[in-house]
Amino acid sequence: MGRGDRGETMPRARCSDQPLPEFVTALEQFNQGRFFEQHETLEMLWRNEFGRLRGLYQGILQVGVGFHHLKRGNYNGAVHLLERGLSRLAAYAPACQGVDVARLISETRRCYEQLLSLGAQHLDAFDWSLVPQVHWTSGTPPTTSTQPEHHIG
After folding, report:
1. pTM of the predicted protein model
2. 3-class SS at 2?
3. Which domains does the chain have, with CATH numbers?
């Protein structure tokens, strides 16, 4: 059990639960290539989650920040964060919170491998079309009564 803002005990979220609207927003930001913004949104969720989903939030956050570093030409930062994000996400495959985690891992790994083969000196040759989108297992994000339906990838 986690603690709410007022110290009350709250049930911890599970992979089978509906995603929070903020999580959906973070994934939209990721899919738009707004990796810094997705970091800010996911960091807020990650800092407030003390259960199973903490690693999911952190793994996607790290992958996004890895691509942010790549955009800025920081080879070492990109490699390090993609590596950490991939490692963290492995526990959530094939799917969690309606996210196709296995696909995100596979597509991110392809980027990671290309980065390693290019090396820091050839970073400008990176194929940006390989950067993954986060996909929902149902094709669209699960909806809740407080969340309008959005389409992500």
Report:
1. 0.84
2. strand
3. 17-130 (1.10.3450.10)
* DSSP state letters, 45-73: HHHH--STHHHHHHHHHHHHHHHHHHHTT
Type of residue found at 24: V
Confirm if 135 and 94 have CB atoms less than 8 A apart: no
pLDDT tens, residue by residue, 88-124: 999 999 999 999 999 999 999 999 999 999 999 999 9
Q: Which amino acid is at 22?
A: E
Residue 100 to residues 56, 74, 116, Cα–Cα distance (Å): 12, 28, 25
Tokens of 74: 């920081």
SS3 127: coil
